[in-house]
Amino acid sequence: VHVLKGVDIYPENLNSKKKFGADDKSETKTKSVMPKNSLHLDLEKRDLNGNFPKTAPKTQSSPDTGNLSPKHFTERNKDSVSPESLKSTTSLSSEEKQDKLGTLFFSLEYNFEKKAFVVNIKEARGLPAMDEQSMTSDPYIKMTILPEKKHKVKTRVLRKTLDPAFDETFTFYGIPYSQIQDLTLHFMILSFDRFSRDDVIGEVLIPLAGTELSEGRMLMDREIIKRNVRKSSGHGELLISLCYQSTTNTLTVVVLKARHLPKSDVSGLSDPYVKVNLYHAKKRISKKKTHVKKCTPNAVFNELFVFDIPCEDLDDISIEFLVLDSDRGSRNEVIGWLTLGSSAEGTAGEHWKEICEYPRRQIAKWHMLCDG
Predict the structure, then answer these.
(1) Strand, coil or helix: 153
(2) 237 close to 283: Cβ distance less than 8 angstroms
(3) What is the tens place of the pLDDT at every residue in 321-331?
(4) How far is CA 47 from the centre of its chain?
(5) What gap in Å lies between CA 149 and CA 143, rounded to an integer?
(6) Is there a single domain that holds both residue 240 and residue 208?
(7) Are residues 352 and 287 in the same domain?
(8) Residue 357: which CATH number?
(9) Residue closest to 119 by CA, chosen among 165, 158, 168, 163
(10) How many domains does the chain have?
(11) Among 196, 240, 297, 302, which residue has the fewest nearby CB atoms (within 10 Å)?
């Protein structure tokens, strides 16, 4: 056995996977310094384990491990997978898991005798963990029949599970079969939180157009997707008129208009109304609210409220406006809010300063609503 320049060849080196692996960069270095008359080790003829095949065709070359997919790697011997490649495939799979929110399984049918629409929420599989400490969730499901939002139901909460089996049946009476095609089912998958607002895992939206239920029960499953994000860049605007009467210590508030209100949910337009709260030294002392305006992003209220001020000036007074979406049978969602007072900034602060400087004058301004 001849000795290569700068490289010692020993029997154990021939079977070494660390020095002569398929991805070893020393291969090119060894070949470049090898004399013509020395023993030629054809490194390209070895398999992924670093061993020489008994009979190797002259045209055979080492496989390009850079082009192998993770599937090919799993079919190979475990020793042929480098730690770097194993790490990359693991990180990819974890990213894919983060994007997946699970699958919802349910069934639909129509009872012609009772003229009732029947929905059975069977189970959900592969939900993400919303509690980072226990790495689990307490899931439940809210279901609404759109577009009218009259029929709303929710399942029980199942504790500490990512694969909840609900198997709950909900029957909706008074829905003619001819109207089924015009309806849409909205499933909201949530995780119960005892100490704060429940976490929204995702949603499933099922338009029933083209669904044929005359032949019996239909089993369905759908991937859970992220909750629909409001497309509007802002949360709308509110036109408010204020007038301070220093002689009577009263504050007249007129809620005039709202415009560019975003969608409150996937059903379409919101049903907005405005709650007005009066605060003295950060304590609420009075509250009012407007009427609900149906299905509009641009509501006209024109409603006047008069508040008695318990002090001689407005330094400790602030007034809060909450624009909400009226929702029968559940908690009304806040679309946006606005606070006017001496500590307010921007147009809200300017508006408050003007009514203090010019009492008995009715002053109206548009204000941007903040995130609800």
Answers:
(1) strand
(2) no
(3) 999 988 765 67
(4) 47
(5) 10
(6) no
(7) yes
(8) 2.60.40.150
(9) 168
(10) 2
(11) 196
